[in-house]
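Backbone-to-sequence.
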């Protein structure tokens, strides 16, 4: 019997990354056969689930860790500009799909929620003012406001001021153009678009192995999670977008490019309230400063979340530790990920990040009272009876080889591609989902270099600024932000 005809593309993992890549490829190559495989009963149950992430449309409008205070007193905004640029690419793609009726009404997955930074203490206030002065003149941050006036901040977010000592020195910035994104809903909408245009979606199927044949085609081994039946399929291109499960699959693929990578899992919790009276008093995503040694994903923030048209508030995250690489993963995920090629990088990264280890220990030992005290630093009159603890998603930070240090711990995302471009995977976390589109564009350019030129007109139809930098042109930035804001129903300006 001759082997079944291979798929053109197989996407492993039913989250925002696979759905985004599939949607882009379906636009540039409508006739390609695509299959998306998810091990769980539904799509977007891991990191893309709205209660497993903060839903922030990460654009550095409020996240202080993307701006660095330099010794000379200036503030480096280069990372903030980069993150904002990337989010605008994602917004353009979503806007295009909405305009073409390929996605439903935008409020099903994106809503306008102001982004704020809030700090207290003389040094922090001085930093926030310097940050504001550096950002306000940039076209991507036009409309940012700064205030130390309690009445003004109260008008932006009453919960921050009610019950706060007036003697405390505090300050805030605000951007009305911030967003809250339900990446679970967006993932399912993108997957529905794929299914409606010929893609095959399968759930309850776990990938157990990958091997590349002499003809360059990959064989993917599958096992049903119910009944345990096994099967195989073939594909010319494979994307491993399985979140924390991606590292193990890339290691099993045997590609040399995956050697040396390790993973450090970090879990998290949030306090949540659905009390309508409490929720009605706060409509903003308010970010503060991270504790010393805390990873970027642990920056404290008080967030409005809008899921299925209903608003809630979340505060956190409170970091924890589990050896699992996924919420649904195995307790053996971490030990089984250790290979001869990544032992040295992992040990070196551990040695250089003892402050992170200590931070995680203190978080694990924190009492309920201590956790609630952290919320009251943002919301002084918060009542314990209104809030309950939820467990967020697992994140796996990337550990990679480094010529000087032996190994380094990364807090961003890492695209790993095979030398021949027939397989690629994504490792890491923050800022993750918000930058899914530019990350997948990077992957496409690396894996399909001979096709990108022919795809460029279609890519520019979807993303008008493809190949351009908004930060180079205030007029282009203003036009682009205005167009996507109107099509996605996002507030503009102050």
């Amino acid at each position: 019997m001759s082997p079944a005809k291979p798929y053109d593309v197989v996407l492993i993992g039913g989250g925002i990354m696979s759905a985004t890549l599939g949607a882009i490829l379906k636009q540039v190559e409508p006739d390609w056969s695509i299959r998306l495989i998810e091990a769980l009963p539904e799509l977007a149950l891991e990191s893309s689930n709205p209660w497993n992430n903060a839903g922030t449309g990460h654009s550095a409008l409020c996240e202080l860790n993307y701006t660095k205070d330099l010794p000379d007193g200036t503030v480096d905004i280069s990372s903030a500009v980069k993150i904002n640029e990337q989010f605008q690419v994602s917004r353009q793609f979503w806007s295009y799909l909405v305009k073409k009726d390929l996605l439903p009404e935008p409020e099903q997955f994106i809503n306008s929620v102001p982004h704020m930074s809030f700090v207290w203490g003389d040094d922090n206030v001085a930093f926030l003012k310097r940050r504001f002065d550096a950002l306000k003149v940039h076209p991507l941050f036009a409309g940012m406001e700064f205030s130390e006036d309690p009445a003004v901040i109260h008008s932006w977010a009453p919960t921050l001021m009610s019950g706060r000592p007036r003697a405390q020195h505090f300050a805030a910035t605000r951007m009305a153009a911030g967003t809250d994104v339900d990446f679970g809903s967006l993932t399912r909408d993108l997957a529905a678009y794929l299914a409606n245009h010929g893609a095959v979606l399968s759930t309850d199927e776990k990938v157990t192995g990958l091997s590349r044949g002499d003809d360059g085609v990959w064989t993917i081994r599958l096992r049903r999670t119910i009944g345990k039946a096994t099967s195989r399929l073939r594909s010319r291109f494979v994307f491993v977008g399985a979140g924390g499960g991606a590292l193990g699959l890339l290691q099993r693929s045997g590609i040399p490019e995956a050697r040396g990578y390790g993973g450090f899992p970090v879990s998290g919790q949030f306090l949540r309230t659905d009390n309508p009276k409490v929720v009605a008093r706060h409509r903003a995503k308010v970010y503060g400063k991270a504790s010393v040694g805390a990873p970027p994903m642990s920056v404290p923030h008080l967030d409005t979340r809008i899921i299925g048209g209903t608003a809630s508030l979340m505060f956190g995250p409170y970091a924890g530790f589990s050896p699992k690489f996924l919420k649904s993963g195995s307790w053996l995920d971490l030990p089984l990920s250790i290979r001869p090629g990544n032992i040295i990088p992992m040990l070196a990264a551990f040695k250089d990040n003892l402050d992170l280890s200590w931070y995680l220990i203190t978080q694990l030992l924190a009492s309920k009272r201590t956790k609630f005290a952290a919320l009251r630093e943002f919301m002084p009159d918060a009542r314990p009876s209104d809030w309950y603890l939820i467990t967020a998603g697992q994140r796996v930070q990337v550990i990679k080889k480094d010529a000087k240090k032996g190994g380094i711990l990364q807090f961003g995302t890492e695209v790993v591609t095979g030398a021949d471009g027939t397989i690629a995977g994504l490792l890491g976390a923050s800022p993750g989902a918000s930058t899914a589109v530019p990350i997948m564009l990077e992957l496409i350019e690396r894996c399909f270099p001979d096709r990108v030129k022919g795809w460029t007109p279609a890519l520019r139809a979807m993303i008008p600024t493809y190949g351009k930098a908004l930060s180079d042109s205030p007029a282009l930035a203003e036009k682009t932000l205005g167009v996507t804001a109107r099509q996605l129903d996002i507030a503009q300006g102050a």
